[in-house]
Amino acid sequence: MEASPRGYFGGLDWLRGAFLAVPREHFVPERVWWPRQGEHGLYELIDRRATPARWLKATYLLRTPLITQLDDGAVPPDGPASGVFTSSISCVTVVIELLRHLAPAPGDRVLEIGTGTGYTTALLAHRTGPDTVTTLEVDPQIADRARRRLDALGVRAHAVTGDGERGYAPGAPYDRILSTASVRRVPPAWLRQLRPGGVLIAPLDSPFGWDFTMRLTGTGSGAAVGRPVATVEFMRLRGQRAPRPHRELGWPDGIDARRWRDYEMRVDQHAQRIRVPAARKGKTLPVRATS
Hints:
Structural class: alpha/beta
Number of domains: 2
CATH class of the largest domain: Alpha Beta
């Protein structure tokens, strides 16, 4: 098992406390796929009943996600397989990064897009309190399993089966919105449901072959501004899987991957724009992947 993630918390006692209080293994399915191809190009299945020690070690590896679904559930978890990753439990370091930048406070109303296993939902609820987190999952089977896992642990969160791209208007406005699926275009519904001054964290597709973790702040009237805070790779929101030209999504020509921290994003109900502010032009920064 890897070393303790203590150094990753950066002095955030609430985040360390949440990780200690919420058992990650409670949310990991008994059968998961290792995320790197092995023999014959297949993803190896790790079965808790067959190899419990290995399953537990994989569950707590800091930098390794575990795949919980292939091809939208068309591939059964009964052996090594190939296919497209469509659901997972994110690695520990990525979850820490997302929650660190989200920075929820006790009592905050939170909308989570992509319930997945329910693990991040439980971490959020531990921080913000009972009945403060609404979590959306598009896949009914995944949603049902997560709901059972949350209920078994006594986590009081509102788990909804539905299209995350639409958000959840009955619970709005939200102080914090977190997406655990990447987007090509930030959905306007999220912006409408984010309160002014609220924070939205979402992985955003980029022309560089990876996603940016964007931290956006609501400005009111369904708009937000912000910058990338990390690089990461996430599965795409189901409604946004189809490729689109990056120019249509507000990316400028002549962008430089080495300067990713310089970019600024403005997004509203009609468009999103990514640019380098004039005051920051001329600087060159290295790319630093976090996943």
